[in-house]
Amino acid sequence: MRLLLVEDDNHVAAALSAVLARHGFAVTHARSGEEALQALVPEGNGFGVVLLDLGLPDQDGYEVCGKIRKRTSTPVIMVTARADVRSRIHGLNLGADDYVVKPYDTGELLARIHAVARRTVPDDAAPAGDDALRLGPVRIELPTRQVSVDGTVVQLTRKEFDLLALLAQRPGVVFRREQIISEVWRTSWEGTGRTLEVHVASLRSKLRMPALIETVRGVGYRLVAPAA
Questions:
Q1: Domain 2-117 has CATH 3.40.190.10
Q2: Response regulatory domain location, by residue (predicted)?
């Protein structure tokens, strides 16, 4: 997923960009509000999330957030040292999707990025009728928990469906192993890693699409949307 990092401190931006890159993000760095607004033309410019620091040299960060929201529906996470409730409410009222207070834990930041990203359905996971996702020949019907490939129904276990549905919400986004275990199995990573690997292998086999779920070494998995 492409991420726009709006941060005027080059040292902070370099360190954070390195962390984000290790977790599968393609990071573009904007050093000012105006640079960020230009990067989002036209209509979001393909970014999945904007990580917006409020302490910018040219414009107030809140003002930049308001301008971003007028131009695009791309999720915005505000990053600031202002911890008071009034500041958070103001940011959310301007259209921010989340608010992270410095200093923050990197794991929490990554979880928040994934969370806001999943709230929007991308073009390559287009709705295929009510409450359904279509990814190339794969159709995932959420209410009936039915999956089909080229019109042929594929029988999946409950956890196989939950895993596929999770990854399919954001094609191309890398989901960390810990995150998948937490959301699908509702437990911690410890002792469950092998179970995840087995379910991924089973999905690849049943769907007869080994390239559909890509392993990102040392991080987790992502769904690679096939051609229609």
A1: no
A2: 2-117
**What's 132's DSSP letter?**
E
Q: Are 77 and 98 in contact (CB under 8 A)?
A: yes
pLDDT tens digits for range 207-216: 999 999 999 9
> Residue 136 has what DSSP assignment?
T
pLDDT tens digits for 59-84?
A: 999 999 999 988 888 889 999 887 77
Digit-coded pLDDT (tens) for 148-169: 999 999 998 888 998 999 999 8
Residues 6+ apart with CB under 8 A from 13: 5, 7, 29, 31
CB 204: neighbour CB atoms within 10 A? 14
CATH numeric code, 132-223:
1.10.10.10
